[in-house]
Amino acid sequence: MQEKIALLTDSMCDLPRDIIEKFKVKVLSAKVVYPDRVYSDRIDIQPEEVYRRMPEEIPTTSLPSLEDINQVLEEIRNEGFTHVLALHISSGLSGTVNAVEYICRDVKDLTIKVIDTKTLSMGTGWIVLDAARSIKEGLNFDKIVERVHKLQENVRVYYILETLEYLRRGGRIGKVAAVLGEFLHLKPVISVGADGKYFTYCKAKGRKKSIQKLVEIVENAAAEKEINLAVVHGGAQEEFQKLVDRMRKIPNIKELVSSDISPALGVHTGPGLLGVCFHEV
Q1: What one-character-per-residue DSSP string does 197-211 give?
Q2: Is residue 227 helix, strand or coil?
Q3: Band of residue 164 on the pLDDT scale cut at 50, 70, 90
Q4: 88-122 pLDDT tens trace
Q5: Is the sign of the CA dihedral 242, 248, 252, 257 positive or negative?
Q6: What residues contact residue 244 under an 8 Å CB cut-off, 6+ apart?
Q7: pTM
Q8: All domains of the chain, ordered by start, with CATH?
Q9: Sheet containing strand 273-280, strands side by side
Q10: Contact at 8 Å (CB) between 100 and 30?
Q11: Cα distance between residue 227 and residue 141, in whole Å
C-alpha cells in the first residue's frame, strides 16, 4: 500500500510559519490560561501580548486539549493519510506527548508513531523540519523514524534569560537557585539534557557575558563541522537581531533559521530570552 505520511507537532516547536505552511505540518496548539480567558498558542495570542501583560498578569499554560488532538486526527484521516509521525516537546517539560500517545492508543485505522523529542523550541523544530524534508523526498515511514532518532541525539539547545523569576514561578527551577543567581548577577546558560530536562550548562557574570557565551558555544560547535543553526528569542528583539548578525559571520553554518518562541514557552521564561538550537549536518 502506498504510504501517505502526515507530520504532527505542537506549537512549542517554534518553526517559522512559512516553513510550517510549506510542508503542511499539522500543529497542536498549547493553551495560555488567564483568569478570564483561555487562548490557543500562536492562534489567538502572540508572544508580544504575553510579555506586554507581564509582570502584572502572569498566565499559566496547559496542554493541547484531547478534543484538539482528536480533531487533528480526524482532519488527517479525511485528507487520506495512512501514517502519522507525531514529534513533540520533551515529556520532561510538558505532558503533550503523553496526551497524544493516550489518544493515539485507540486509533486503529492509521499507523501512528509518537516520539518524545526530549527537547523543545527549534531543537524540536529541526527534527520536524528534517522529517518534513524526508517525507517530501519520498522516504518510507520506518526510514524517517530511524532518521528522527539519529538526529535527536545530535540536537543541542542553549538559552539565557533576563531573570530566573518566571522559571521559578513555573516550578522549573528551585527558589534558592533563582534568588542566588539574581543576587550575584549570575546568568546561567540553560540547556536540555539527554533526559529531556533543563540543566545549567555554565554560568556567566552579567547579560553581556552570557550572550558572548552563546556565541562561543556556536563557534565551538561549528569549528570543525557544518551545522544547521536556529537563533530564537522571547521579547528581546534588539539583542536578538544583533545576535543573528553575529552568527551570520561564523563559518560552517549551512542553514540559519531565526524565530521567536511561542507564547506558551514565553510564559515560563518571561521577556529577555535568547537561545541557540543546532545540529551537525
Answers
A1: -EEEEEEEESHHHHH
A2: strand
A3: confident
A4: 999 999 999 999 999 999 999 999 999 999 999 99
A5: positive
A6: 231, 256, 258
A7: 0.95
A8: 5-152 (3.40.50.10170), 156-280 (3.30.1180.10)
A9: 198-205, 186-192, 156-160, 273-280, 227-234, 253-260
A10: no
A11: 25
